[in-house]
Each structure stands twice: as structure tokens, then as C-alpha cells.
Specification:
The chain folds into 2 domains: about 1-30; about 35-140 and about 180-375, TIM Barrel (Alpha-Beta Barrel), CATH 3.20.20. The chain is built from 10 helices and 11 strands. The longest helix has 26 residues, at about 5-30. It has helices spanning about 5-30, 35-45, 115-130, 150-155, 175-195, 225-240, 255-270, 280-295, 330-340, 355-375, and strands at about 65, 85-95, 130-140, 160-165, 165-170, 195-200, 205, 245-250, 270-280, 305-310, 345. Mean pLDDT is about 80; it is low at about 30-35, about 35-75 and about 315-325. The strands form 2 sheets. The protein has an 8-stranded parallel barrel, surrounded by 5 helices. Strands 4-5 form a two-stranded antiparallel ribbon.
Length: about 375
């Protein structure tokens, strides 16, 4: 190793130590009340000169993404109330995109990709005149071994762990066969359905593809995947879908260090981001301000698509959290939409209860305006 390389490595290590110290300092400030929040908001003020990312195609017709469209209904949730979705938003467990029944040690990774289900949704989207946004996730919470254990059974590397008392297994994305499978999966999607793709969520490490392995008590069921594997997935999607919008999830260094560093890398590449549990007071007042700083994401606001997914569903819009009894769920959600120029909402296939229809229409108008402004 040359002296220059050694210095680069030492500098990189020092920068990482600084990040850890900064994250620790942020954690110590959690109990500071109103002053801390005001300081956080000041720190998150948009840069007067945001970075100039390359132009991308239009986002959606009206900024609304419909989550969990059912095959048998065609119209679902808000569609029944005349809120027209511009993009169907779907989450695929990797098992739904695999020929697990054909898996063997002699099978090539490419031959084990199964796009039948994805292609069905693509046809529905074309029939409806909308686009398709999607995430491919390794795990969801539907039972034991819901991950792609067929990969394990044919000798591909991975990790078994226990999450909330349930055994699970996830692939090691440093394994050449695992990488070849996902390279082929995304490549085949692009070859066959590029015309209908709107946005792509970041590759689905962790539970529900949300880049974490949180137990119910907040502990980690297993360590996060290596930063290099996260970055590999970001570069992969950039290479296969160069002209499509892509979203990364918000993460804090103090909780999910590798994910936060990778998310910062994605923001540097011009990615947008999404935040879950929108409307939840703790997420709004503590977690997301921390994550925005850790990811240096505020510089991207107003220049990239930003999606929110509500805490609970829209029918819970009259909920007021015990930690913040004077601040309603809807007011918190509206504040996030205004502060971060939200362009999309994932509504979980739910309808809006009648007392909140006017409120939702107002928020959707703001979201649409943000999306139109982003399109220029």
C-alpha cells in the first residue's frame, strides 16, 4: 500500500470517528425540549443554492401514490373517493419474484428470476393509464423464514437470526450468486417494463425493506449489512435505471450507522428520500430532524422527489399522540409536507374518513404543487 493510500485510509477512518462522535452528541441532546427543536429547525433551513441534479422525467399526474393495490379490485382506497393515483406503489417480497421451485446448486442465478407477478402489475398499470413504483424487500413479518431461504438451501451465503422470537434468514449481498440474481432481476424489469416505471425504492435490506432489523423493544435482531453492500445496490439501481426517480429511506447514525452512511451516499448521487410514520410526533420532532442532518438531506429538498407514508392510516387522522396532546396527527403531517416539500404520499390503500376529507384535499393540493414545482 502506498503512503498516499495509507493516508487516505487514515483520513477516512478519522471522518468516520467524527461521524460517530457527532451522532453521540446528537443522542445526548434528546431530552432538551423546545429550544432543541427550534435549533434543529434552524439547522434544517434549505440551502439558498441547492445542488443542480440532472433533469428527470415527470413524477406523476397528481403526486398521489396508491399503496397495496389489490388485483381483484382495480379501484381501491382513495380511488373510491375520486382521488386519482398517478402511480401504483407496490412492495414485492423477493420470494414473489423467484422461481424457488426450480432452485438447485446447478441453476444459474439468472434462471431463478420470475417476473410473472411483476408483469401482471405492469399490465394493470398500463390498463389504468398510470405508472408503477416498487420496492423489492428481503423480509416482511408474515411468519417464520419469510426470507428467501431457497437461496440458503442451494448454498448461497446468508445469515439466520431471531427477530421478536421468530427465526428469519437473509442473504449476504456480498455473495456473487446473490448479486448476480438481483442484477438479473432488476435488469429484466428494466428490459420489459421500463416504459411503466415511475420510481424505485432503495433495494430492500432489512425488515420490510426499511434498512433495519429492529425488535419490538428497539434492539437490533442482527447487525446491519455492510456499507459496501448498500452502496453496491445504489450503484446497481443507478446503472440500470439512470433516468428514473429513486428513493432512499431516512436513517440516523446513532441507530443505523451503515444505513445512514449509505443513504448519505445515495443523496449525493441525486436520489430522493421517503419517511415512514409521517404524523407521529416523536418521529417528526426527534428522529427525522436527526436523520436529515446525519444524511445531509436538506440540501436535496426542492430538487428531488420526497415521499411520506403515514403513521397508521388516514382513518386514524383524528388520533392525538399522548406525548403531544395539543398537536393533531393531521397538523403534524401538514407540517412535514410544508417543511420538506413532499411530492408523494403512500396511502396504504386506505380511505379517508369523512371528517378529514377537506383536510386531505388541502394537503393533497400542497403535495401536487410541490410535485409540479419540482418538474419545473
Amino acid at each position: 500500500m502506498s503512503v498516499g493510500d495509507q493516508l487516505d485510509n487514515e483520513l477516512s477512518a478519522l471522518c468516520e470517528e467524527i461521524d460517530v462522535i457527532a451522532a453521540s452528541m446528537a443522542t445526548l441532546q434528546k431530552d432538551v425540549s423546545g429550544l432543541r427543536e427550534r435549533v434543529a429547525l434552524l439547522e434544517m433551513s434549505p440551502s439558498p443554492e441547492p445542488p443542480a441534479y440532472p433533469p428527470l422525467p415527470p413524477i406523476t399526474r397528481n403526486g398521489l401514490q396508491q399503496t397495496f393495490y389489490w388485483p381483484g379490485a382495480r379501484v381501491d382506497g382513495l380511488e373510491k373517493q375520486d382521488f386519482k393515483a398517478g402511480s401504483l406503489y407496490l412492495r414485492f417480497n423477493v420470494n414473489q419474484l423467484s422461481h424457488a421451485d426450480r432452485a438447485s446448486r446447478n441453476a444459474s442465478p439468472e434462471s431463478l428470476v420470475n417476473l410473472e407477478g411483476f408483469s401482471m402489475w405492469a399490465r394493470w398499470a398500463r390498463d389504468l393509464g398510470v405508472k408503477l413504483s416498487f420496492r423489492v424487500m428481503m423480509l416482511n413479518s408474515d411468519g417464520a423464514y419469510w426470507g428467501p431461504t431457497w437461496m440458503r438451501d442451494i448454498g448461497w451465503r446468508g445469515t439466520e437470526f431471531t427477530w421478536n422470537g421468530i427465526k428469519q434468514w437473509v442473504p449476504d449481498h456480498g455473495d456473487t450468486n446473490v448479486r448476480a440474481f438481483f442484477e438479473s432481476l432488476y435488469g429484466q424489469i428494466a428490459d420489459k417494463h421500463m416504459d411503466v416505471i415511475d420510481m424505485i425504492d432503495a433495494h430492500g435490506f432489512g425488515l420490510w425493506g426499511e434498512w433495519h432489523y429492529n425488535n419490538a423493544d428497539g434492539s437490533q435482531a442482527k447487525p446491519l449489512d455492510p456499507v459496501d453492500d448498500f452502496k453496491w445496490s445504489i450503484d446497481l439501481l443507478d446503472g440500470i435505471f439512470p433516468d428514473k426517480h429513486k428513493l432512499v429511506t431516512l436513517k440516523r447514525l446513532s441507530d443505523h450507522r451503515n444505513a445512514a452512511l449509505a443513504a448519505r451516499y445515495a443523496i449525493d448521487q441525486g436520489w430522493g428520500f421517503r419517511f415512514d410514520a409521517a404524523g407521529d410526533p416523536w418521529s417528526n420532532q426527534v428522529y427525522y430532524p436527526d436523520a436529515m442532518r446525519d444524511m445531509r438531506a436538506m440540501r436535496a429538498v426542492g430538487t428531488v422527489p420526497i415521499a411520506c407514508e403515514p403513521s397508521g392510516t388516514f382513518n386514524q387522522g383524528n388520533w392525538a399522540h399522548q406525548q403531544s396532546p395539543t398537536l393533531s396527527w393531521w397538523n403534524i403531517l401538514e407540517g412535514q409536507i410544508d417543511r420538506w416539500n413532499v411530492t408523494h404520499v403512500n396511502n396504504k390503500g386506505d380511505q379517508v374518513s369523512p371528517p378529514h376529507l377537506d383536510t386531505f384535499r388541502r394537503l393533497l393540493t400542497k403535495i401536487n404543487a410541490n410535485g409540479q414545482a419540482l418538474q419545473g
